[in-house]
User: Fold these one by one.
Assistant:
Number 1:
Amino acid sequence: MEKRKKVDKPGFKHFKPAFTENKDLVFGTRAIIEAIRAGKEVDKLLIQKGLTNELTTELINEATQAGVPIQKVPVEKLNKLTRKNHQGAVCYLSVIRYAPVAEVVSACFEKGVDPFLVILDRITDVRNFGAVARTADCAGVHALVIPDKGSAQIGSDAMKTSAGALNFLSVCREHNLKDTIRYLKDSGLKIIACTEKGEQNLYELDLKGPVAIIMGSEEDGISPEYLRLADFKGKIPMVGNIESLNISVAAGVAMYEVVRQKGL
């Protein structure tokens, strides 16, 4: 029997997906400067390595004054983000406005409620972040606390994954998480590290009252410097063959243990 030749469908043999711009992206030095001056919340600014012109210096100064995280990257990185004339500068806009952690804590105490915060250390996956935010809003968390570097981009994808929870949940972007944790301790919050290194089960800890739970990445866990600052370390008991949970699931377990203990 003669072997039939494979016939390509017309129009699909050399098909290449179209390049699509990220709608959270702003490029061009002057455009980014004006976005910052207009009060837009910038999630992250990427600047081409080696650029030293006057306009780039002005942009860096504006971003620094506004507290925008700046990252120097190769031009190839910027070219992958946009094919248009980016002039060596690209930024991601955030879909939310960040809240200072001190204001969140003060507002809670002024209302007579115990602050309930979740600190996310090195959670870079947007889908995981969005899922954590969704559960946090349902569990009555007052704010998520993240570092200004090494965290998921909070753009339209994060908003979608959170099912809109980021419209209602405060997010605090802090430059130094170590200082932030110390501030929370000084403000009367118990710092609970949810970690497999804990000697007690999470369910055995007293999670009532003002509390902040630290969650680390699935790959690296919680940074040692933050573990040392924790008042208590609690682990989620594992009885199966898999020894780890997805971060969004683990965070959900921890948050709802707080809900259970508060009797909400």
Number 2:
Amino acid sequence: MTRGKQKIEAQKRNAERNQKQKGSQLEARAAAFKTSCPICKVQLANPNQLADHYTSKHPKEKPPADST
């Protein structure tokens, strides 16, 4: 067990380590994924991935026009 000044310093270090990071991963993910499939609601990074997604997952459907 630490006492006195060591204990206070250890508590400060632990508080700094356990502090929440600025921004969240969900916010970063939402910023990165701007396109989504209207059929299955999967989020994609760009229209090229949307076209690939349609050819592999929805072959009978036509991909939507690029309106992003």
